[in-house]
Amino acid sequence: MSHYYEENDLERFDEMGKYRPDLYENFMNYYQGVMSAGALSVREKALIALAVAHAVQCPYCIDAYTRGSLEAGSNLEEMTEAIHVAAAIRGGATLIHGIQAHNAAAKITL
Amino acid sequence: MLPFARQLAHLGYADLKAKNVSTLQVNLGWRCNQSCKHCHLMAGPHRPEQMERDTIDAIVRVVERWSIPSVDLTGGAPELNPHYEHLVERLDRSGTHIITRSNLTILFEPGQEHLAEFYRDHRVELVCSLPYYQEDLVDRLRGAGVFQKSLEALRRLNRLGYGQPESGLKLNLMYNPAGAYLPPEPGALEEVFRRELAQRYGIQFHQLLTLLNMPIGRFKEFLERSRNYERYMGKLVSVFNPATVSGLMCRSLISVAWDGRLYDCDFNQAMDLSLLAGLPQTIGDFDLPALASRSIHLGDHCYGCTAGQGSSCGGRLAEG
Questions:
Q1: Which chain A residues have a beta carbon less than 8 Å from that of B319?
Q2: What is the ipTM of this complex?
Q3: Which of A3, A17, B59, B192 is buried most, with the most CB atoms less than 10 Å from its CB?
Q4: Which of A11, A71, A77 sits opposite B184 (nearest CB)?
Q5: What digits encode the pLDDT tens for the residues A96-107?
Q6: Which one of 3.20.20.70, 3.40.50.1980, 3.60.21.10, 3.40.605.10 gives the CATH number of domain B4-304?
Q7: Which pTM was predicted?
Q8: Phi and psi dihedrals of B171, rounded to 5?
Q9: Angle made by CA atoms B143, B144, B146, in degrees to the nearest 5
Q10: pLDDT score of B181
Q11: Cβ separation of A73 and B184 shorter than 8 Å?
C-alpha cells in the first residue's frame, strides 16, 4: 500500500460485505433507497452528497459524486455552489462555537 | 472485460438478429463545419468523404422499392453534401419520414441561408445537437462561438414553427455528456433544459434525447489520452442492462456510408465493421428480406448502447 487512499479502492466497496454481510446488505438497501428519486430529485441528492463529501473530506465520495452530479446533468457552477454551501456551514459552525469559547472565558475571567 | 458477444450469449442471444429495417440511416459524408471533441467519425471541415449522386439515387430507389418508413440523414453535416436537397426532395415525394441531424450552425454557412425554410417546406424532423444550456460547456465541446450561433438558429427555427407545442414541425435536441461519464435520465434533464432555454433565451423544443459518448473515434482518443479508457469501459460493462437489448437500434436500422457500403449502425461504420459475410454489402445490393433478419456484427463498443437505460440515435432504450 503506497498511499492511505488508493483510487481503485472505491471499486472494492463491496468487500466490506465479506464480514457481517447482513449489515452490509442493510446499509446498501438503505443507501440505494436514500439516493433514489423521492421528494428530492436524483440531481438534487447528488449535489447534497457532493457537498457532504467535501464537508467530511472523503476523496472517494468526492470522486463518486463529482461523477454522480455530472451524470445527473449538473454543471460546475451548481457543483461549486453546493461546495460553497458545505464551506459556509462548516465556517458558520466554527464561528458559532466561538460563543462557547466566549462563555468559557467569561466563566473563568474576572 | 467480458466480450460483448459473450455477455449477450449469457442472456440467450447466441446470435443477435435484426427484427426489421424501419429506418435507413444515411451518412452523407464526414465533412462538417464543426470538429466536435467527441465525434466518433472524426468529422471536420477538411474531411473529403462525400456521398456521390449515383449512391444517393440508389438510396431513393431502395426507399421507394421497399417502402422504408423512415430515413435518417446524418454526417458530418449532411447539409454540406451538394446533393442533400435533391435527396430530401426525392424522399419527400416518396412519402417516407425524413429526419435530419443538424448541428444548427450549418444554417449560417455560406449558401445555406434558405436551409431553415427548406427543412420546413419538406417537413423534415430535426434532431439538433445541443449538449448543454451553457455557453462555456457547449463551446468547449463543439468549438468557439457555437453556442450563440446555435441559439440564433433555434430562434429562427422556432419562428418558422419548429418546436412549437402544437406544431407538426418536430424539433428535438440531442444531449451528450461533456466527458467520461454517462448521460442523465432524460426526463429530469429535459425539464431543466426546457426551463433554462425558455427563461434565458426564449427557445422551445419538443423532446430532449440523450446519447452516450461511444468509446471510439475522437472520444476514444480523449479517453486514452486522459487515462480514462479502462474506467469508462468498466463503467459501461458494470451498468449493462439486459432490458435494452430488445430495443437496440441496430435491430431496426441499416446504416449507409458515404461510399454506399452498408453497416449495422453509424458506430460500426466509424470502425469499418462491415455487415457479416454473406449479406448484401452495398446499397446497390440492398435486399430487405435478407437484411431484416440479419445477424448483427457485434463489438465491445456495443456496451455503449446497453449501458444504464440504453443509448441510441433516438435517445434512451429502456424506461428508468
A1: none
A2: 0.78
A3: B59
A4: A71
A5: 999 999 999 999
A6: 3.20.20.70
A7: 0.90
A8: -130, 105
A9: 70
A10: 95
A11: yes
